[in-house]
Automatic annotation (TrEMBL):
This is Peptide chain release factor 3. The gene is prfC. It holds the Pfam family RF3_C. One of its GO terms (cellular component) is cytosol. Keywords: Cytoplasm, GTP-binding, Nucleotide-binding, Protein biosynthesis. CDD domains: RF3 (cd04169), RF3_II (cd03689). GO terms for molecular function: GTP binding; GTPase activity; translation release factor activity, codon nonspecific; translation release factor activity, codon specific. Residues 15-288 form the Tr-type G domain. Gene3D superfamilies: P-loop containing nucleotide triphosphate hydrolases (3.40.50.300), Peptide chain release factor 3, domain III (3.30.70.3280), Translation factors (2.40.30.10). It is found in: Cytoplasm. NCBIfam families: prfC, PRK00741.1, small_GTP. HAMAP family: Rel_fac_3 (MF_00072). The lineage of its organism: Bacteria, Pseudomonadati, Thermodesulfobacteriota, Desulfovibrionia, Desulfovibrionales.
Length: 536
């Protein structure tokens, strides 16, 4: 029997958690939108802080030089803030397709996603890839169509694009009036309000309240918009009533439909409504599947899942932080947690919470929250922590790499450092490495080729190891599992050139073409060739 006051408290705390990831194709406005969301949460009090960070003066999300050089966000970060009585955990994701594995892991820690689309560009390549990742978990997605202050595609065209290119129903919950120089505001289809756009209001600091009118029949509509725009809006809304998808909560929650909002992040227009929609519509923490059973967030027992490791965030301190998503129970600073993979208890007195511009010690936290646990290599991606029961949460896999390089040391005396660096970077999930069963140079495997560049740079800057990376003819990999060891031994004898072991010692086969892979799978029926392997 759960104790009643605790149950009431955990229900209350869990119900006010919103943990969501923000995803977009680079340049759609993710950073700008994040900044405005943080402004509303009071997490930052000055616009421009995130931008300054992009230029390298702050270190919140873009930790690495390579990110600044390329203007992309490689690593993910977490920000916690309050809004309207809700505790929001906002998870940033890498914008670049080569880091989709990292994005997938972040999505395992989020209960929903917010997708940003540029109104002039519509759905872009990376939007599609991110959508594929979301689909793997049926993540509920809210869409924000950004940059309405610029000329872009028509709203109907954009909705059609989302439906055709992403294969998801698009249900507009707001509707723009004009765009570019003619952008006049947004009509809130849920509340029948018009928010009038004032380009001067949202620049810089917190926005002024915008003008709100009641319903399409409000006589001030024509005064504010002019007769033509008012008539256009009435016609559009009528059209939508007949042709558009009506918003259906269940379709959104199961990832079949995305509610769509329009606005302009840089002008801070439509952002507050978006945040209100997130707290209103987006799901809070839900039960999660573990090896033994499903775990409800409302259980008294604490459980948490390590979904990301970030090492050396602060070069001066050489730290290594495990990001833990709390799945059930209450976290209290200092509580002892069981680390089941290692079969030992770990202390949590130095647990931290991530605010926009700082980290601070965390006294208590609840399901949905993300806490950081500094550690020296004991925690890996996929690890589960509980107050006792030997649970293991599922759903954080390694993905089979599609790009491979052989690693050569420039200075052969650095072999130990290389081993250490690659081990740590692979535990972080930044790269996978493989040892050929026949010996010889190690191989690095990545889902996206840009990962190699990041690894070479990080090995040099964090471990003082310089490497050369040489191409190989391999372009696919599968983990091998079999009931009988004999079969694996036979395959090893016949194909030793293509066999490697991963960091955990699992046997992996590499292929030079999809055709080769299919043929091998066909021939070796007693062996399972898997494209993913659970991390822990
Ligand atoms: P990202 O994180 O998704 O890569 O996008 P980011 O926010 O960095 O925005 C990309 C560019 O789009 C930036 O311009 C940003 O100012 C601009 N932008 C974002 N939201 C809006 C909007 O609502 N309207 C308009 N017109 N532009 C917007 P930049 O020129 O690359 O950078 P900057 O020189 O403005 O800082």
């Amino acid at each position: 029997m759960q104790n009643a006051p605790f149950l009431a408290e955990i229900k209350r705390e869990t119900a006010r958690r919103r943990t969501f990831a923000i995803i977009s194709h680079p340049d759609a406005g993710k950073t700008t939108l994040t900044e405005k969301l943080l402004l509303f949460g009071g997490a930052i009090d000055m616009a421009g802080a995130i931008k300054a960070k992009k230029d390298g003066r702050h270190a919140t999300s873009d930790w690495m030089a390579i990110e600044r050089e390329r203007g992309i966000s490689v690593t993910s970060s977490v920000m916690n803030f309050d809004f309207n009585g809700y505790a929001i955990n906002l998870l940033d994701t890498p914008g670049h397709q080569d880091f989709s594995e990292d994005t997938y892991r972040v999505l395992t820690a989020a209960d929903s996603a917010l997708m940003v689309i540029d109104s002039a560009k519509g759905v872009e390549v990376q939007t599609k890839k991110l959508m594929d990742v979301c689909r793997l978990r049926d993540t509920p997605i809210i869409t924000f169509i950004n940059k309405l202050d610029r000329d872009g595609r028509s709203p109907l065209e954009l909705l059609d694009d989302i439906e055709q290119s992403l294969g998801i129903e698009a249900a507009p919950l707001s509707w723009p009036i004009g765009m570019g120089k003619e952008f006049k505001g947004v009509y809130d289809l849920r509340q029948a309000h018009l928010r009038f756009f004032d380009p001067q209001a949202g620049k810089g600091t917190r926005p002024r309240e915008t003008v709100v009118i009641q319903g399409l029949e409000d006589p001030s509509l024509a005064e504010l918009l002019g007769n033509d725009s008012a008539a256009d809006l009435r016609r559009d809304v009528e059209l939508l009533d007949g042709a558009g998808y009506p918003f259906v909560m269940e379709h959104y929650l199961t990832g079949k439909q995305t509610p769509v909002f329009f606005g302009s992040a840089i002008n801070n227009f439509g952002v507050k409504e978006l945040l209100e929609a997130v707290v209103d519509l987006a799901p809070g923490p839900r039960p999660r599947t573990a090896n033994l059973r499903e775990v409800s967030p409302l259980e008294e027992q604490f459980s948490g899942l390590v979904f990301k490791i970030q090492a050396n965030m602060d070069a001066a301190h050489r730290d290594r932080i495990a990001f833990v998503r709390i799945c059930s129970g209450q976290f209290n600073r200092g509580m002892k947690l069981r680390h089941h993979r290692l079969g030992k208890d770990i202390k949590t007195s130095s647990a931290i919470l991530f605010m926009a511009q700082e980290r601070c010690g965390v006294e208590e936290a609840w399901p949905g929250d993300i806490i950081g646990l500094p550690n020296h290599g004991t925690l890996n991606v996929g690890d589960t922590l509980t107050t006792g029961e030997p649970l293991r949460f599922l759903g954080i896999p390694h993905f089979a790499p599609e790009h491979f390089r052989r690693v050569y040391l420039k200075n052969p005396f650095k072999a130990k450092q290389l081993e250490k660096g690659l081990t740590q970077l692979s535990e972080e999930g930044a790269i996978q490495f493989f040892r050929p069963v026949n010996g010889g140079a190690m191989l690095l495997g990545a889902v996206g080729a840009l990962q190699f560049e990041v690894i070479a740079q990080r090995l040099a800057s964090e471990y003082a190891v310089d490497i050369d990376l040489l191409g190989t003819t391999f372009n696919a990999a599968r983990w091998l599992f079999a009931e009988s060891k004999e079969q694996l031994d036979k395959l090893t004898r016949e194909h030793s050139d293509a066999l490697v072991t991963d960091a955990a010692g699992h046997l992996v086969m590499l292929f030079t073409s999809a055709w080769m892979m299919e043929r091998t799978i066909e021939l070796w029926k007693a062996i399972r060739f898997e494209a993913t392997r659970e991390c822990a």
